[in-house]
Structures are given as C-alpha cells and as structure tokens.
Specification:
It contains 17 helices and 33 strands. It is of the alpha/beta class.
Amino acid sequence: MKNADELKTSATPGGDFTLPGEAGYEELTLRLAKKWGADVVRDSDGTQLSPEILSAGYGVYSTICVIREHNEFAKAHPETQMEAPLYSFPVAAEEDTLEIELLSGYFNEQFEIDDRACSQKFWQAFDRTENKELPREMWEYAGGGKVLIKNVKKYHEYSVNFFAFRVWEEISMYNHVTNGWQKEHLRQIDPVHPIVRDYLKNYMKSWCEAHPATNVVRFTSLFYNFVWIWGSDLKNRFLFTDWASYDFTASPSMLENYMAETGGKITLEDFVNGGKRHSTHTVWGETNLNYMRFVQNFVADFAAELVKIVHAYGKKAYMFYDDSWVGSEPYSDSFARVGFDGIIKCVFSAYEACMCAGVPNVETHEIRLHPYLFPTGLTGEPVFGKGGDPVTPAQKYWIAVRRALLRQSVDRIGLGGYLHLTENFPDFCDYIESLANDFRKIKTLHKSGAPYTLPVKVSVLTRWGALRTWTCGGHYHEHPDLDLLNLLESLAGLPVQVEFIDFSQLKKGEISGDILLVAGVKNSAYGGGSAWKDGGIYESVAAFVHRGGALICVNEASETDGFSTNLRLAPLLGVDLDRGDFNCHGRYPAAAEREEIKTGAFAGKTQAFIFSPDTKILKNAVKNAGENTFAITCRRAGKGAAAYMSSYKHTPENATALLALLKKLKEIAGAPLENYYLSDNPYVDCAYFEKEGKLVLANGSLLRQSAKIALPGGETSFTLDPAETKIVSLTR
C-alpha cells in the first residue's frame, strides 16, 4: 500500500484529478483514469472499488459518512437517533378546545415524534395570533402524536413546538428520489450520546482496518446535516432548507449539555422562531450564537478524536465541505483543532471555488466539478439520461469556476457520481480531458506566484464576518436573487483582493480594505439589521470614508428604524428609501446627464430617491425599471466617496461595470488605477502571471469572442473559440 503522500504514479502522468471509479466497470474506470490524467480513484455513495481498481497503482479516496450506515445500532438504541426541533403548523380554533396533530403536513417517512419525558420537558404551546406561550396547565399530550389545548380563544391560531426523531437520513432520501436507490432507509445516530461516541471510535478503527488500500478517508462532512425539512405535499416538498442552520444539531441531550456547560437558557422557540426559524440570512440573537459556538466546539473535539484514529493508520483525512458540515465550518475558530489534511468542495460557481481555495489550516484544497455523474440535473432535467447533454452544463459550470481559478489556486479537481453513465457520452469524456489539462496549466502558473492584481481591497461587511467567508447561504442556484451572492460571484473573478469583516471589527476600525461593501435587505445578516442602531458603527463608517475610504451600499443595506433617514448611511450616500414617509418631499431628478459607467444592465429601485444636490448618477437604470429610477450613484464625502446601487445581478457585463465602479471610487480618493492586463470584452477573462510572463485568456461564453488587452507596451488583440482557455507568452 502506498502512503498518503504518494498519490501520483507513473501510470497517471497528468495528476491532480480524482476520478469516481466503479466496481463492475473496471475497463471504463482505468481507461478514463488514463484519459483524464487521474492520479486518484474514489468511491461514491452507492458504489465500490474492486480489487482490480484498487491494485492499479492509483491513490484511493474512500468515502465515509460517520453517522449513517448504522441501522442495527440505531434500532437497538432508538433514543440515540438524531432529532429536529419542529412546530406544528398553526391551526385556527373554532371551539373552546383544540386538538393538534403534531406531524400534520410533514413527510412522515422523515420524522417520528419523540414523546419521551426528557423530550416533552422542552415542548411548548403558543397562541400564534398573540405570539404568547401558553401555560403548561392549558395543554397536554394526548398520545398518538396529538396535543390537546383547552380554553382557547376562537379563531386564534395555535401551534406546538416539539422534538421529532429524524428516521431517514436526508441525503439517503434524496438519492432514493433522484437516483432510484431501493435499499433500506438509512438512519443516523447522534454523537452527543456517550454510547454513540464510543461506538463510532471503535467503528472508525474497524473501518480503517477494513480499508487497507485507502490513502485518504473522505469524510462526507461530519455529524450534523444541513437543515432539510420535507413536507407531505409534493407541490411544496421542501418546507425549509438552509446550509448553515444549526437546527439539526438540536436534541434534548444537546440542549441539556448546553445549559449545564454554559449556564444559559435555551428553548425550542429559540429554533422555531414562530415558524420563521433562523436561517443564515437572518440576524441571530446571542442565545443562538452562543449555541452555535457550543456546537462547533463539541464537533471539533470529537472530530479530532476520529481524525487522530485515521492518522494512526497512516491515512489522511479530508472533509467534504457540504452535506453534514454544520458545526465544522472551515472558517470557524475551532476548525483547526480537528486536524484535517484536506478540504473538498463541490462547486457550481466562482465564489464557491474561492470559498474552498481560502480555507486555512489544511494542506490540500480540492473542488468537485459539475455536473454530477447522475442521470438528472438540479431541476430533474436529463443530463446523463436519455436525451441528455452533459457537455453544455459542464462547459457552463467550468466557465464560472475558471474565473475564480485565474485569481486563486486550488490543488486538485475531480468528479463524483456513477462513472458508467459516461459510456454513451464520448464527447463529454473528451471535454473533461481538455478541461483537466487546462486546469493543470493554470495551476502550474500559480506556483510561480500570484497573478497581477489591482491595488484594491474590498472589505465585505456582514453580521457573520469571516465565519462565512465567500458565502451567504448555499449554492448560487439556490438563492440566485441575493444581491450579495451576485456581488461575490462577480468579485471572485476580478483582479482585486477581498476580505470579510463583521460589525464588531468595523466598530474597532479593523478594516484593511480601502472599499467597504455592504449589500442586502432590511433586517438581514447582510443588510445589517439592528447593528446600525449603534451610533459607533455609523461613526466608524463615516470616519473611514472621510479619511479617503470608499463605501458601496446596495439595496436596503443599513436600513433600520428609529432615525430621521431609513438608510442609516443616507447622510453619506445622499440617497434614501421612501417607505411612505417621504411621499410628499421634494427630490432631485434621477437622470444622468452622461453615464460614466458604460457597461452593465441594472434594475432601478422605485423607492430610492436622491436628496443631496452633490449626489451624482453614474449609471441609469434599465429602461423598463420605471420612471425616476437609477442604478448607481456616487457622492464625495471628505477625502473619500460613497456609492449606492439599487440592486445587483451578476453578468459578465455587470462584473465589468462593478470593476469600473471600484476604479472610479479609487480615482475620487486620489489613487487612479492603471488599466493594464484588463480585457475590453466582458466575456473574456484575463490574468497575467508576471514571473512566468504568461497571459491567460478565458472565453466566458459558448460563442467565439475577440478581445483587446491593454499592456504596458500597447494594446494586443486576441480571438478565442467558445469556452477556450488560451495561454500566451508576453515579451519580457
């Protein structure tokens, strides 16, 4: 057996590529490994690697999901199954007494009520019409999954908070539905219980001994899945989904441990939140933040024990940065204690590639490309099934990811899923070969040093700060309308630096960037919410701008109640939002005499208005946005400037406009930027690696494109085929 440091072999001249092998398809596996230059083969959920594959001289990743595949243990110890804090959907009372069926509306194959005494201790009943908790004597558990509430008010709505066991692991559910799995429903066990921790440590040792050929143990994250609550109605199957919610970590034991160790109080309502729950998009209170940190420490401590076992068997441990990653967030303070050797992230977009590339305290950063080798795509469309076209989505995803890889480097790429599905798609196999070769060329250039970057650093301000570096909630396709997600997608491919800070850092003046960006809607984690009520926060921003910094405020960012303006930063911006309170007030016309930002197509916001005569419009709204709307404004303030954007949607043209805005703000601050190594075509990305004297051009479209690149010695023109990556040498 090779050790974990000997992943490359003479049989794999390309390297840096992980291929999903599959028993029963040995010839295909080994042929594509050679074609794609793979140096590692891996299994996937539902596949195995045969002795023929394992002995072929490749490094081996083996997938393990620590908390599932233990049905016998779960059935023998049902109290150790993972749980979820749920609430019954509100029911209107029509009589003096109301009976509520707790799981009505939920998918009954996912949940079973935990009606043990230790669970009922945390149950709560609410009059949701008045938002009041009911005293315990007003309600009782009647058995059979029903709660009886007495002396209710007619027509008021009532609900009950309760615990339920999650009896079908969510990824297993998904694979049954998507990939036609027909095996026993997998349950999941919770390491919060000492008996489970002891069992899992022994299981980890046995697993390592049973996988002698494995070089890398690929943890499908760790213990707690992202929240995915399914409903009974197929028209609304996914009732709540959030990649960073901590709801699925909660159980009677976890809450008891939290209160015993911290001295704090926590209830089911702290999770349920009247049915709204707490997603990563919302502002969390101190109770939820303290609970999150408690869980992170618990996860890190136990995960470190498992990783230590893996290392004792001479193997490396990588974490899959998706699925059951809650509590093991790679940018958390506790993550480094785990001791992972590598991080693997599935990516659909540029910002996700940056998210993976920047993870500290790991040796290897690997991205898993899309599409999955699954029959269907994200929306059920055929990909590798009959009538499918996997090449087009592969090109589109690679175009997005490649933008980021021109700016930041990762160590490896790979695919996941069922390799046999590629048999009928030779054009896809050819494309992956070309893609892999392009990746290796770009990675080699990064080894000589970072590409040319403009002297611009953007400080992105959110309530999460660095904890949620390069993300604000899952994948791009899940929240395509979030302003900040779109801004991150654009920034990921621009030749600028980016950092992520929170409001406490801002107040203390801990900003290393020269441009402060805040984008989001009112009361969100990104817009800032109540943080703007702190006068010290406003003072910090104002001082930053007046000293020569720049501010970009997007949509409803800084909006809060209780002040003379709706946008807290309105005095700097010269722009405010009309919520009906400025209906009768005068305002300056929203029409630019001459647009200074030529590219991009931005929607205006009808509620936004200009109230300062020195506020300048840099970009008008698109024609169908309505009258008296604008897209981008700018106002000088002291030595700096403040810009307002009504909204933002990532497109190649808008990314170019965003870069133009950054340059404009630097110019106002007295630091105009050079235009070298920038493309005049929004669909052609460009990166210059000075030490190698190499210019990388990437066609970000599926059409032929031409571009002019400004160089210190003059302008040079290039033409690129659809989706082409071109590397040219410049005279040095």
